[in-house]
Specification:
By secondary structure, this protein is mainly α. The chain is built from two helices and no strands. Helix 1 packs antiparallel against helix 2. It is elongated, with a radius of gyration of 16 Å. The two termini are 23 Å apart.
């Protein structure tokens, strides 16, 4: 029974990361960029988002 619960939570955690991981990373990148470099160009954020999507698609396998 414990193994079943453990597998369930592992599957839920992995699906949450695969669904929301790129968005959360992009939001964190935008916040850090805004705080550390307030005069930096805003076009870096969508470029970073596309980069994260490509990395997740290529290297994150469940």
């Amino acid at each position: 029974m414990m193994n079943l619960i453990k597998r369930f939570f592992r599957r839920m955690f992995r699906s949450l990361i695969s669904y929301y991981g790129p968005a959360v990373l992009t939001i964190m990148f935008a916040l850090v960029q805004g705080v550390l470099f307030p005069d930096s160009p805003i076009w870096l954020i969508p470029v970073f988002f596309v980069f994260v999507i490509v990395i997740f698609y290529r290297y994150v396998e469940w």
